[in-house]
C-alpha cells in the first residue's frame, strides 16, 4: 500500500516511462523507414518507366523523321538532279540508320510488344518504299548520265520500256514515282503504323504508371499513418513528462498543446491535402495542355491559328523560311450555294490536304476566314518546283468530289524569307504573289517576283 501510495504521490519513474516510450518510438520508426524505402524504390520505378517512355517515343518519332527525311531527299533529287540530295539520302540509309536504330531501341525497351510490332511494320513499309525511290533515282542517273553514283543503284535494273525513254521522259517519270498517289498511299501506311506504335506505347506506359501510382498511394498512406502514430507517441511522452511535473517539459508541452491541433490535425489534413493536391495537379496539367492547344490552334481545322502563327514566326529563322499564302477560290460562292456548314467542311478538307502534302516539319496555319498559310522551314528558291508540285497535288485532292463535298481549288502566293526584312514584309510579298495567281486564273501558285507557275 505504501508503494502504490508512493507511486500515486510521486508518479511513475521517468526511467520506466522513457524506456517504454522509447521502445514504442523505435518500433514505429523501423516500420516508417521500411515503408519510406519502399516508397522511394517505387518512385524510382515510376521515374524509370517515364524515362523509358520518353526514350521509346523519341525512337518511334526518329523512324518517322528518317522516313520523311528520305522522302524529302528523293523528291528534291528527282526534282532538281542535285547530287548532294542523293548523297544525303544514302548517308541516312547506310550510315545514320535512324530507322534501324529506332527499332533496336524499341526491341530493347519493349520486346514482344504491340508497339514494337507496329514499329517493325512501319520499318518494313519504309524499306519497301525505298525500292521505288531507288528506281526513281536510277532513272535520274540514267537520264543525266551521272557517273560515280552509289553502288546500291547498280542493283536497280530499269525495265526495257523505261530504259528506252528519252532523258526528259525519264526525269518526269522519276518525279511522278515519288509524287503520285501510290507513293503517298505508301507514306500514309507508314504514318498509320507509326501512330499505332505510339498509341500502343502510350497504353502500355499508362498501365505501368497506373500500377505504380496505386502502389505509391498505398505506401504514402502508410507513411502518413506511421507519422501520425509517432506524433501521438511523442505527445504522449510529453504529457507523461508533464504529469510527472518537470517544468521545462511542461513549458514545452504547453507550446506543443497550443500547436498540437496543427501537427495532429495537420497530419490528417496534410494527408487529405496531398490527395487533393495530386488530383488538382493532374487536372491543372490537363487544363494547361488543353488551354495551350486551344490558344494556338484553330477549333475548326485543328491547324495553328493566328496566335500560333505569330508565335511560330517569332521563333523561326526568317532567312531560311518560305511562306505560302493560301486562299480558297470562290469560297463565298460555296457558302452561298451549299451553306456555311459545307463551307466549314471545305476548309477542313483544305487544311487536311495541306498537312498531308507538306512535310511534318512545316507549319499549317489558318489566319482567318478562308485564308491559310504554310511556313516551310529550311526552304529556299531551290524548292520552287517541288512547291509547285505540292500545290498541284493539293488541288488534285480538292478536285475529288467523290465524298459528296463540292470540288474546290486554292490559289497560292509564295515568298522566300531571304527576300524580306521581317515577317510583315514576308507576308506582303506572299500576298502580292497570291494576287498574281488570282489575276492569272487562280488554282495555282505564283512566286514573288516570278511568273505564274
Counted beta strands: 5
Radius of gyration: 34 Å
What ranges have pLDDT less than 50 throughout 5 or more consecutive residues?
7-11, 249-275, 277-281, 287-291
Main sheet: which strands, in order across?
2-3-1-4-5
Give the % helix.
over 70%
Order of helices and strands: HHHHHHHHHHHEHHEEHEHE
Count of domains:
3
Mean pLDDT score: 78
The main pleated sheet reads as: 5 strands, mixed
Shape estimate: elongated
Distance between the amino and carboxyl termini: 116 Å
- Helix count from the secondary structure assignment: 15
Percentage of residues in DSSP E strands: 5-15%
Structural class: alpha+beta
Written overview of the protein:
Helix 4 (98-109) packs antiparallel against helix 5. The chain has 15 helices and five strands. With 453 residues, the protein is α+β, with helices and mostly antiparallel strands. It has helices at residues 2-10, 14-80, 83-96, 98-109, 114-144, 160-163, 167-177, 181-243, 247-259, 261-296, 306-315, 331-338, 340-357, 384-399, 423-439, and strands at residues 322-328, 363-368, 371-376, 410-416, 445-447. The termini are far apart. The chain has three domains: 1-259, no CATH class; 260-287; 306-447, Reverse transcriptase/Diguanylate cyclase domain (Alpha-Beta Plaits, 2-Layer Sandwich), CATH 3.30.70.270. A five-stranded mixed beta sheet has the order 2-3-1-4-5, sandwiched between helices.
Would you kindly provide a brief summary of this structure?
With about 450 residues, this protein is α+β, with helices and mostly antiparallel strands.
Amino acid at each position: 500500500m505504501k508503494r502504490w501510495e508512493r507511486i500515486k504521490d510521486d508518479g511513475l519513474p521517468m526511467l520506466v516511462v522513457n524506456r517504454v516510450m522509447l521502445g514504442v518510438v523505435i518500433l514505429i520508426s523501423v516500420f516508417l523507414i521500411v515503408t519510406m524505402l519502399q516508397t522511394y524504390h517505387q518512385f524510382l520505378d515510376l521515374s524509370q518507366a517515364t524515362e523509358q517512355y520518353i526514350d521509346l517515343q523519341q525512337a518511334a518519332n526518329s523512324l518517322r523523321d528518317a522516313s520523311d527525311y528520305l522522302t524529302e531527299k528523293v523528291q528534291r533529287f528527282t526534282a532538281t538532279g542535285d547530287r548532294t540530295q542523293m548523297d544525303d539520302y544514302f548517308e541516312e540509309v547506310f550510315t545514320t540508320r535512324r530507322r534501324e536504330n529506332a527499332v533496336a531501341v524499341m526491341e530493347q525497351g519493349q520486346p514482344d510488344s504491340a508497339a514494337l510490332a507496329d514499329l517493325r511494320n512501319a520499318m518494313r513499309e519504309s524499306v519497301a518504299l525505298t525500292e521505288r525511290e531507288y528506281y526513281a533515282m536510277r532513272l535520274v542517273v540514267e537520264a543525266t548520265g551521272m557517273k560515280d553514283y552509289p553502288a546500291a543503284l547498280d542493283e536497280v535494273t530499269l525495265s526495257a520500256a523505261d530504259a528506252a525513254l528519252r532523258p526528259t521522259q525519264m526525269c518526269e517519270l522519276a518525279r511522278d514515282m515519288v509524287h503520285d498517289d501510290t507513293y503517298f498511299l505508301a507514306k500514309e501506311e507508314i504514318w498509320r503504323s507509326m501512330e499505332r506504335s505510339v498509341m500502343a506505347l502510350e497504353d502500355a506506359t499508362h498501365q505501368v504508371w497506373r500500377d505504380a501510382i496505386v502502389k505509391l498511394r498505398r505506401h504514402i498512406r502508410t507513411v502518413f499513418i506511421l507519422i501520425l502514430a509517432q506524433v501521438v507517441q511523442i505527445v504522449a511522452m510529453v504529457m507523461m513528462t508533464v504529469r510527472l511535473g518537470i517544468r521545462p517539459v511542461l513549458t514545452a508541452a504547453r507550446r506543443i498543446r497550443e500547436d498540437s491541433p496543427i501537427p495532429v490535425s495537420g497530419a490528417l489534413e496534410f494527408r487529405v491535402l496531398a490527395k487533393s493536391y495530386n488530383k488538382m495537379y493532374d487536372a491543372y496539367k490537363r487544363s494547361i495542355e488543353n488551354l495551350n492547344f486551344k490558344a494556338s490552334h484553330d477549333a475548326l481545322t485543328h491547324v495553328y491559328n493566328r496566335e500560333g502563327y505569330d508565335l511560330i514566326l517569332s521563333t523561326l529563322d526568317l532567312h531560311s523560311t518560305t511562306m505560302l499564302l493560301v486562299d480558297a477560290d470562290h469560297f463565298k460562292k460555296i457558302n452561298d450555294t451549299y451553306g456555311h456548314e459545307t463551307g466549314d467542311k471545305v476548309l477542313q478538307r483544305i487544311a487536311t490536304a495541306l498537312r498531308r502534302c507538306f512535310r511534318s516539319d512545316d507549319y499549317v496555319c489558318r489566319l482567318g476566314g478562308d485564308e491559310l498559310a504554310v511556313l516551310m522551314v529550311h526552304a529556299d528558291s531551290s524548292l520552287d518546283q517541288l512547291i509547285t508540285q505540292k500545290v498541284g497535288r493539293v488541288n488534285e485532292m480538292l478536285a475529288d468530289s467523290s465524298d459528296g463535298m463540292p470540288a474546290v481549288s486554292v490559289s497560292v502566293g509564295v515568298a522566300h524569307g531571304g527576300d524580306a526584312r521581317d515577317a510583315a514584309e514576308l507576308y506582303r510579298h506572299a500576298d502580292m504573289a497570291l494576287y498574281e495567281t488570282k489575276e492569272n486564273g487562280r488554282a495555282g501558285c505564283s512566286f514573288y517576283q516570278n511568273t505564274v507557275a
